[in-house]
């Protein structure tokens, strides 16, 4: 047997294996493609729903965000309904808001303001002594200071630091009595027990003043 005959036999032996390998590989590739197609089909409804949602949002923006009577809103969104991100960024060169800190100094100024103007006159107190703090800021500080969430019965009330401290202790006592002392302040209850107690004490105090 010649060398050429041996090579020919080797080729014949190897050929079936190669063919089998090719035949075996084809189903694997087909299965993989089918799985990918199934995955795409499974994701398609979700993607379509998300796209519809985004389109709806864009329509709502176009309908409600841009108001002809407010010139500033015309650049809020683009004609296709997408947001103009530059509109929401701070303007270049804008000064960073100065950080505020509530210290004992501010607390004393608020107390003096209450003593002079009374609770409820936070606009005057802000303008006169605490310009960096808004009316609402001072109202919240006063709530913490005197220990009562609802300041309605205190409207116009004036007092110094000692008077405020006494009111705080009284409010705390009532809150602990009815279980309505929450986060350092007296809050009203649904049954009206706190309000009834406060009104009773107020009427009693008013009677004492009249007797004097």
Automatic annotation (TrEMBL):
What Gene3D superfamilies has UniProt attached to this entry? Answer: Homeodomain-like
What span is annotated as the signal peptide, if there is one? none
What CDD domains does its record include?
SANT (cd00167)
Q: Which InterPro entries match?
A: Homeodomain-like_sf, SANT/Myb
Domain of life, source organism:
Eukaryota
Region of interest called Disordered, as start-end residue ranges on this chain? 1-52
Instruction: List, for all copies, the residue spans of the domain called Myb-like.
Output: 98-148
Biased composition (Basic and acidic residues) is annotated at 1-10, 34-52
Quote the protein name from its UniProt record. Myb-like domain-containing protein
**Source species:** Circinella minor
């Amino acid at each position: 047997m010649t060398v050429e005959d041996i090579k020919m036999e080797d080729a014949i032996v190897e050929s079936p294996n190669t063919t089998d390998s090719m035949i075996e590989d084809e189903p694997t590739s087909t299965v993989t493609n089918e799985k990918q197609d199934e995955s795409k089909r499974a994701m398609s409804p979700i993607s379509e729903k998300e796209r519809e949602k985004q389109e709806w949002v864009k329509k709502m923006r176009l309908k409600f965000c841009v108001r002809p009577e407010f010139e500033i809103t015309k650049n809020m969104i683009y004609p296709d309904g997408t947001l103009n991100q530059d509109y929401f960024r701070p303007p270049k060169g804008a000064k960073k808001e100065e950080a505020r800190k509530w210290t004992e100094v501010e607390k004393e100024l608020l107390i003096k303001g209450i003593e002079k103007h009374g609770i409820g006159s936070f606009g005057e107190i802000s303008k006169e002594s605490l310009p960096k703090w808004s009316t609402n800021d001072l109202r919240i500080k006063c709530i913490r200071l005197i220990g009562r969430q609802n300041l309605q019965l205190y409207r116009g009330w004036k007092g110094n630091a000692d008077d405020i401290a006494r009111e705080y202790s009284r409010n705390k006592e009532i809150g602990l009595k009815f279980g309505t002392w929450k986060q350092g302040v007296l809050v009203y209850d649904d049954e009206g027990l706190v309000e009834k107690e406060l009104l009773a004490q107020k009427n009693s105090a008013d009677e004492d003043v009249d007797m004097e």
